[in-house]
Amino acid sequence: MAADGRALEAEGSRSVRSSIPPRPNRRVPRVGGSDGTSPHAASRGIADAPSTRGRWRFVLRLLAVVAMLGGAVATGRLGVRWLHTSPTFALDAPIVTGTRHLSEAQVLAAAGVRRGTNAFAADPVVVRERLLAHPWIAEATVTRRLPRTLRIAVREHEPAALLVTSDAVYVVSAEGRPFSRVDGTRALDLPVLVGLDPARMAADRAWAGRRLAEAVSLVTMWRTRGLERRAPLEQLHLEADEGWSVHAGDGLLVRLGRAPHEADLARLVRVLDVVRARGIEPAVVFLDGERRPDRVVVRRRRPVEDAAAAPEGGRRPG
Predict the structure, then answer these.
(1) Which CATH topology does 159-307 take?
(2) Are the C-beta atoms of residues 232 and 248 closer than 8 Å to each other?
(3) pTM over 0.70
(4) Who contacts 114 (Cβ-Cβ below 8 Å, separation ≥6)?
(5) Domain 88-156 falls in which CATH fold?
(6) Which helix H or strand E contains 97, and what residues bound it?
(7) How far apart (Å, rounded) are the C-alpha atoms in residues 154 and 110?
(8) Helix, strand, or coil (residue 150)
(9) 295: helix, strand or coil
(10) pLDDT, tens digit, for every residue of 252-286?
(11) How far is it, in rounded angstroms, from Cα 132 to Cα 109?
(12) What does the alpha-carbon distance between residue 171 and residue 305 come to, in Å, rounded to a whole number?
């Protein structure tokens, strides 16, 4: 019986232990909110909290970057302002070379710079463009060396003659191109070109270019042949037949005819040497004979007392 009693006691204890539910080994999350919200609302609250904090961190970082960029821009503006106003970059007197007819002051006025101009305001490209806008400047080179040096080298148009028309007087370059009006402020000792019709020059630029090229070539050859010493060139006149007449020093008139003139000027040198060696002062020399181009006719200068009775000196004798 004792054995049966112990068996019953053991069986009873197992029955009691099996009727007690097991204790959970982990905490079960609360499904509902503490304020009685639904399980779906509680689950949304749990999911949204980390996302909101991430957005705020992004906004704060973006604001920091914007603040840094704003500070950099402000610092850059202050730096640029300092560069354009600091005496450290005020130019010394700009160095100008290559002038023959323009003064240094005229070149600097055309360039828009002077002593004390900020070096960063004297952009070489801009300064060169200003210089090339001046009618007398054919080419320009501008070099800037920071902090205070600016060099300007110019090449001017070389004037060869003055073209006189009914409406204005123009300076003609050695290339045969009118490049500037004469304003009366510059004294130019140059031969004068007359007889060119401005209306025809405007209507036929090719014709005008040929006539001006002939005139400039004639001026050049007159000097290279040594005629400038014998009879300084004063005026070139385009005749109705498009031949050229030259008025030189001491009242000498030379009728050259149409271009080319190389052979004519070579004969003129010989004729002047011969007649002056004989004590004859020529008044008119005719080199324009088309039928006999090798023939030269010389009309001597008459004495003063016979000048009133003399026929017009510019006409070839019959």
Answers:
(1) Rossmann fold (3.40.50)
(2) yes
(3) no
(4) 91, 94, 108
(5) Ubiquitin-like (UB roll) (3.10.20)
(6) strand 95-97
(7) 12
(8) strand
(9) coil
(10) 999 999 999 999 999 999 999 999 899 999 999 99
(11) 12
(12) 40
